[in-house]
Request: fold
Amino acid sequence: MSQTKVFSFASGNDISQALSEFVAQASSEAIARSGRFTVAFSGGSLPATVCRFLVDNGDVDFAKWHVFWADERCVKLDDSESNFALVKSELLDPLTQAGRGIPADQVVHISEALVHDSAAAAADYQSRMEQVFADAAHAGSFPAFDCVLLGIGPDGHTCSLFPGHPLLEETTKWVASIDDSPKPPPRRITLTLPVVNHAARVAFVATGAGKRDMLKRIIESKDADLPAARVAPASGSVYWFLDSAAAQDLSAS
Ligand code: 6PG
Reply:
């Protein structure tokens, strides 16, 4: 049964500091246990918030990281809409410049050659994920990420899993495509709900008063119409990193 912990911080800086420590601890625990750390990043505002202090965190053994994307837009890798590009500029490039780069074959991003065909891009992404999570692939199970980092949208979406979308009922695929995302751009690939719900840790990051009502519906009412409220890893934990504006209406904050 999954555990939920909600943390609220006075400023964006405080959230970034706490996330740096959270991810560093998740990384060292995973590396001590299995020799590697598997992490998936979302797009939007999340990479900048998570990575602000992480790059300079000397406790993190980035050489053992395997980096994935929780969802990705079907655009070129250098497009301003690319989630890969965000993580590249916030984490991958600064680490390389600091001489602590993550080996390129451990950074599993969408294939640029397939961005015109979201279904093919999703199938290709899953097959590369299966190489890293070979045991789960052989067992016909789902990969267990050490850490999945998620944002939420004003409609309660997370990853590219949108309210009312048939993709919410996916039960077998690890990665799926979507061609009708209500948030632009319309063509995307995304981890499926069963994969998110196999993670050891899911951390949601949400800031600003605009997300206040939605957070109450997700965290307190657990409104199953909202994809983010369906995130409950069977044997993992869910952590919420909020600023005080976002957390204001929560009864426990
Ligand atoms: C994307 C995202 C998406 C995002 C939320 C929150 O590619 O659009 O991965 O799920 O995380 O929409 O975005 P903000 O943090 O920018 O509000």
User: Anything to note?
Assistant: Residues 42-46, 71, 73, 83, 151-153, 157-159, 183 surround 6-phosphogluconic acid (CB under 6 Å). The domain at 21-206 is CATH 3.40.50.1360 (Rossmann fold). The chain has eight helices and nine strands.
